[in-house]
Amino acid sequence: MSGWLPLIIILFAVALVLGPVMWLKPSERDRRLADLRGRAARSGMTVQMQALPAALGEGTAAVYYSRWQDSRRLQLGWILERQRVEHDMHFEGRWDWRNGRAAPQAAWEPLRQMLDQLPEGACALVASQNGLGIQWRETGGDSAFRSLESALGQFRPTIEEAIRQPKPAQDRGE
After folding, report:
1. C-alpha span between 150 and 45 (Å, rounded)
2. What are the strands, taking DSSP E only, across 24-167?
3. How many angstroms separate the first and last alpha carbons of the chain?
């Protein structure tokens, strides 16, 4: 038995060292999220975590932003959120404005079209200084990411111009 004691001590020491190292190893989900966010960065998007809409409960989800080309005079600060139930009083089916603060009406039609192209797991559309963003639970894999990327690429320029305030008369030379 005394011959086994050093071997047991060595195995115990190795286990003490390897245990914490294995806990630091990223999970499959962590690697998948890092890959998605890396792809977003390579395509020019930024990703930030934000609290879920109140109707969807506690927690956070990532917002994938497509930057504005020209952020001057944009009417920002509105968020279009997924609601628990579909209702005729909402902006569009299950989507409604946070705190009643709506985007300019010129953007409503492109926003409705964009909602039809969002990936499953989309929680909100956000217009902030960072750009036009889609809050997404990052589910659905590559096809969901491609539809998110496509929706932002297709609709961000149109929505950007729709929410731009006209230049004041003195700036136009009138």
Report:
1. 12
2. 45-51, 60-66, 79-82, 95-97, 122-128, 131-136
3. 99
Query: What's the CA gap between 171 and 169, in Å, rounded?
Result: 5
Q: Full-prediction pTM beyond 0.90?
A: no
Looking from the CA of 15 toward its CB, the CA atoms found within 13 Å total 6
- Cα gap 164→25, rounded to integer Å: 46
> What strand order describes the sheet that includes 79-82?
45-51, 60-66, 131-136, 122-128, 79-82, 95-97
* C-alpha triplet 148, 82, 92: angle, nearest 5°: 95
Structure tokens at 17: 């060292």
pLDDT in tens, 90-122: 899 899 999 989 999 999 999 999 999 999 899
